[in-house]
Amino acid sequence: MSPGDRHDVVVIGGGIIGMAVAWRAAATGRSVAVVDPEPGRGATWAAAGMLAPVAEAQFGEGDLAVLNLAAAAAWPVFAHDLEAATGREVHYRDDGTLVVAGGPSDRAATDRVLAFHQAMGLPAVRLGARACREAEPLLAPGVSGGVDLPADHQVDNRAVALALEAACRAAGVDFVADRAERIEVADGRVLGVVLEHGGPQSADAVVLAAGSRSGALAGLPEAWRPPVRPVRGVTVRLQAPDGVPRLRRTVRALVHGRSCYLVPRDDGGLVLGATVEERGFALDVPLGGLADLVDDARRVVPALDEYCVVEVTPGLRPGSPDNGPIVGSTPVDGLVVATGHFRNGVLLAPVTADEVVRLLVARADGAAAAPGPFDAFRPDRFVAAAAAP
Amino acid sequence: MPETEPTDPFVIAGTVVGSRLLLGTGGMQSPESLAAALIASGTSLATVAVRRVDPGTRHSLVDLLEGLGIRILPNTAGCFTAADAVLTARLAREAFATDWVKLEVIGDDRTLLPDPIELVAAAEQLADDGFVVLPYCGDDPVVARRLEQVGCAAVMPLGAPIGSGLGIRNPHNIELIVEQSGVPVVLDAGIGTASDACRAMELGCSAVLVASAVTRAEDPALMAGAMRDAVAAGRAARLAGRISRRFVAEASSSFEGLVGGGMTIPGPG
Hints:
The structure holds 2 protein chains of 2 kinds.
Chain A: E1 6-12, H1 16-26, E2 32-35, H2 43-46, E3 50-51, H3 62-86, E4 97-101, H4 104-119, E5 125-127, H5 129-135, E6 146-149, E7 153-154, H6 157-170, E8 174-176, E9 180-186, E10 189-195, E11 201-208, E12 229-239, E13 250-255, E14 258-264, E15 269-273, H7 287-300, E16 308-319, E17 326-329, E18 335-339, H8 345-364, H9 380-387
Parallel strand pairs in A: 1-2, 1-11, 2-8, 4-13, 11-18
Antiparallel strand pairs in A: 3-7, 4-6, 5-6, 9-10, 10-11, 12-15, 12-16, 13-14, 14-15, 17-18
Helix pairs in contact in A: 1-6, 1-8, 3-6, 3-8
Chain B: E1 10-12, E2 15-17, E3 21-24, H1 31-41, E4 45-49, H2 61-67, E5 71-75, H3 82-96, E6 100-103, H4 116-128, E7 132-137, H5 141-149, E8 156-157, H6 171-180, E9 186-188, H7 194-202, E10 207-210, H8 212-215, H9 220-240
Parallel strand pairs in B: 3-4, 3-10, 4-5, 6-7, 7-8, 9-10
Antiparallel strand pairs in B: 1-2
Helix pairs in contact in B: 1-9, 3-4, 5-6, 7-9
């Protein structure tokens, strides 16, 4: 085995999570490799880059909301560090999110969620229809009001992916353009990763960050296989031609009970998303879901008719049983899991990277990791559930 | 427990179904919250949208239902023509290894009301083909009768449009359907809260299907338990035989047999 095939850390999966982990781990002086046939081109590429701790706070998911708020707070520094390390802009924008209701029934639904958010103490302010249209003049006259979410920001997720790859390379991270097939384990300790095409990669530690495919890797202890499933989402990338008015900030809409979002970019681009489809690993784009998405968005922002379609992108969110991420150590010494980020992968990337590095450092120091923000999201929560009768 | 008492089994096409509460799985927030709701509901039959769920995916809905021992009832949600629905039902028979199907043929995108003409046509084809057909239909007794005549194993009239939570908008029609039907009547769609489910059972429905009312509740498991209790209460009330409605009071303690005779109406003072 050549010296190049041995690293302190091998990260399986070069999505935003895997690359953030690799970058931060390399900064601790560790040699790091990322195994991915196409880094940054999975769910990371399809995402819209919303950093939405409030809009994504759902009934019964209080722990996740707390984690998401901490994750949002970590983003400005992360974005700054990444830009400083690479000289690339990632277009972090803190101009807030407007939630709008497409009609009176949708307003009742947004009000119900608003009451929940306010009871949790989250920043959310009810707006009348007129206030919504003053905040965002492109909204249709029929919009029935909405909610201002000043703490829900955005970043250009593709710019982040490209910057992370550049930052990793600058920090000496090796990219292995291959698919991990199996994790090698002996005597309760991780040895490395076997690739589909190339030779084995040996490692002192392996980070499993393969998104929706994290459960499919051979060699994992069966009970500790992350219970992630692919939840397909289709986004549409649009471009406002010159002279066509642009959205000021992120708009999330509820139309006839269906959700969509519109995320404007600094360059006149706009990301419209997203379908939610449980159809396995197929990266198809059925017309019906796409048509509903486009119809709903046009109903809320009629000026979209003038926008041009640039790209339609399916991606696979890594869904976990409780919608929370799965981040932490396993009984296999040196194997750390960082997956299951579902709808919040971009948001959670900085804190996930910090957490994984913290675990790697604690292990190297022979210390138990102190309590942290991911304590409610350890892999063992599903192992315990599976072992129960 | 929500299990049907042996003395009052709920039977579809000769098969005893363990609970009179059916659950729809659309709109789940997470697999875990759905699992908690399924358990709390005591259901033994849950619908799965054939076009929206891939039966082969690990940790999917299908895995979850199988793990809980809940029978899968594929539905043809998203179909707008009889041909479409028949094809989808045949795919479901292959994919889910069951010949039971909840037949949905939607006639209007906005209200999601069923198309009765396409529905009866599809039901006839599928029943002829050996399917156990459970059609989602409007609350029109004539359509319900036609569905029974073409061989459906049950009829599933709506209380109100899907996901509306408006309850049972035309209870009299539901009673008419119950009164005429030789197959089980399962109230489907429109249930908003537990009293709606209870009412359906009091009207004589054999079972109730709920989906959004549970999956979109703030606490799905709590609502699922409430639905289970409501269905049990409504069924018991139906069997118990309610009193007739009266315009004015009828004292709950009769005066007859009282010392001093029953004809004296006590006056004030």
